[in-house]
Amino acid sequence: MDLVPLRVRAVMGALEARDAADRVDGTPRARRLRSISPEVGQFLLTLALARRPRAIVEVGTSAGYSTLWLAVAAQRTGGHVLTFETDPAKVAIARATFAEAGVEDLVDLRAADGAVGLAGMTGTVDMVFRDAEKDDYLRLLEPAIGALAPGGLLVADNLTSHEAELAEFREAALGDARLSGLVVPIGRGELVAVRL
Hints:
This protein has 196 residues and is of the alpha/beta class. The protein has 7 helices and 7 strands, in the order ααβαβαβαβαβαββ. Strands 3-2-1-4-5-7-6 form a 7-stranded mixed sheet, with helices on both faces. The longest helix is centred in the N-terminal third of the chain and has 17 residues.
């Protein structure tokens, strides 16, 4: 059964097409959407439905593709998504994405640094999804762990596609006594950990 409303699915399809084109048409890396795959989107939705989060935080909104998957879960669980993006051009695209998909009431988009935002949420977040610039992953780890409530999920993208680049982050996350997790070989590799 497809849980994604048709209106949201149509916006997802347009973003998937743009992302695929970005990857082959010479679009500069900084301007590409660099979205998660639909398979990873379904994985996020499944994790969120299992955890039933009320408070979801995303760091690295881009055009809002992954946010749409999280918003579908939030709608079903009575939750809300707070998402952070620092690139003004992508903030504008994401705002348009959420309006077109009709999920503005489920998503709070902030043009701000996710580490700063997470730092003020001690123990109140049920799920954190990170798909930001890879050199920020390690810096974002402590604020993400601190923000998670016991039983909260930390999910981070690109652990196998950027294995060498994220090795220090992976070691720190999987070696942290406050977390129990693993890297799931789906999409570009998803670190999934629960806050103990």
